[in-house]
Design a protein that fits this description.
single chain; 8-stranded mixed sheet
């Protein structure tokens, strides 16, 4: 059985339903999404590996929209788990919500790197969270993001993409040319529900959406995965079965 996915248009409509009839605020949804991302990092990149070598450095690359906000929330949770997050946030939003998320991280003394230090930050981290573009991305990639995506594309450091590998078309997957055409993250976490691009993914796949009311899931024809215990995420195979 194929994994049920949701289009970009329906994902936007679903978010509107959650914030209207569902009575969720954007703050709540971003907090839940960021929490799920942080749990995926914890599953994928444990702080200590089997040799007890520390693997606690996480570079969180944030875009200017909601995807970037999810990354900022995830970084705060990761700090509390004992990781050492670093933020690259080249196009910071003036929206009050994002500014508050940034202030929360600065209050924890989480470092923010400048553009000239991005390549060095990549070389000095154990893992990367790609929180640049999410399901609403379309059209041309504009500066400074083409060069950022090219770095994510060629790095050997494992990358977890949030909702969509940045530069990918939600329906058609990686671009045919330009930045991102060869970008394959080590893993993807689909927020709320998988998008059609998952059929192009070769890495591991997690779903994070343990807040979706059954009636909303039914309206959009989605399957609620079987979450375990207090987990906010579940890893699935190509058919959507829990691993």
């Amino acid at each position: 059985m194929a994994l049920r996915t949701i289009s970009a248009a329906n994902a936007a409509a679903l978010d509107k339903d959650l914030m209207s009839t569902g009575a969720f605020s954007i703050d709540q949804l971003m907090e839940l999404a960021g929490l799920a991302v942080s749990q995926a990092v914890y599953k994928l990149f444990p702080i200590s590996d089997k040799t007890n070598e520390k693997k606690d450095r996480v570079l969180v690359v944030c875009g200017p929209g909601n995807n970037g906000g999810d990354g900022l929330v995830a970084a705060r949770h990761l700090w509390h788990y004992g990781y050492k997050p670093t933020i690259y946030y080249p196009k910071q939003s003036k929206n009050e919500l994002y500014q508050r998320l940034e202030t929360q991280l600065r209050n924890l003394k989480v470092p923010f790197v400048e553009g000239k230090d991005f390549d060095r930050a990549v070389s000095e981290t154990d893992s990367i969270v790609d929180a640049v573009f999410g399901f609403s991305f379309s059209g041309e990639i504009r500066g400074p993001f083409p060069s950022i995506i090219e770095v994510l594309e060629r790095t050997k450091v494992p990358v977890l993409s949030v909702d969509a590998p940045s530069s990918w078309n939600i329906e058609e997957g990686p671009p045919k040319e330009g930045p991102g055409k060869d970008f394959q993250p080590a893993a993807l976490i689909s927020l709320t529900a998988p998008k059609p691009l998952v059929k192009f993914l070769t890495g591991r796949h997690f779903i994070g959406g343990r807040f979706l009311p059954p009636e909303v899931a039914e309206k959009y024809g989605l399957d609620l995965p079987a979450y375990v215990g207090i987990d906010q995420i579940v890893e699935v195979d190509e058919s959507g079965s829990r691993l």
